[in-house]
Amino acid sequence: MWELLGSERKGQIGRRAVVEKAFRMPDGSQAVFTVTGDASNRAVACVALTPRGTVVLAEQYRPGPGRVMTELPGGGVDPGESLAEAAARELAEETGYVPAVLSYLGEMRYDAYYGGSRDYFLATGCERRQEQELDPAEFVTVREVTPADLVTLAMTGGMTDPGGVLLALPHLMGDSGVRQIFMHLPALRRRIAGQLPAGRRPALSRRAGLARPGATGPSAAMA
């Protein structure tokens, strides 16, 4: 088993602490890993549904990927806030939409070297009740899309929060467009593969539309 021998804070990046952690590993050897953030770095986001059956999304430029990304409205949890309070506040601040009901979906962790986590809520009955209240470095465009568009964005690399969409999927399957996506997965898989550079395109199964393990070229495709 892994044993934590000690940790030392080395600095700060935004809200995230930079920490070096020393471990004794299962084979008895020792190693030091650098991680960012800790359990206090909680963030929230909402899969926000309107009474019209659309989903409220935020679009903004993200320096990491270097392009405009579609996101579930959300952000950090302030001291003294509950997760639900933070989710409702962030939704209203980023988009101007206020939910009638918030239902907890679950927690996701995206990075093996980040100590924080993100909690997701299903926000239903969302209506625009106020103006956006954005931070100075935020430039957010608000969109309403269909549930099928939401799932497609999550499956094709267009979102920063695909895990939140996965958690909400049981609540989205009532939409006929979402069901159609899963009835035609081979077509979607071919679309995803077509967006990759030639050297990174997986061989697709003609039967299931899925990449075969270890397959990298056309000769690996299943008959």
Q: Helix-strand pattern, N to C? A: EEEEEEEHEEEEEHHHH
| Percentage of residues in DSSP E strands | 25-35%
Major pleated sheet: 7 strands, mixed
Number of helices: 5
CATH second-level architecture of the domain at 42-146: Alpha-Beta Complex
Class of secondary structure makeup: alpha+beta
Report the span from N to C terminus. 44 Å
Helix proportion = 10-25%
Instruction: Give the overall silhouette.
Output: globular
Radius of gyration (CA) equals 20 Å
CATH class category name of the domain at 42-146: Alpha Beta
Mean pLDDT: 85
Q: Could you name the CATH topology of the domain at 42-146?
A: Nucleoside Triphosphate Pyrophosphohydrolase
Count of distinct strands: 12
Low-pLDDT segments = 201-223
Quaternary structure state of the chains depicted: single chain
Spell out the CATH superfamily of the domain at 42-146. Answer: Nucleoside Triphosphate Pyrophosphohydrolase
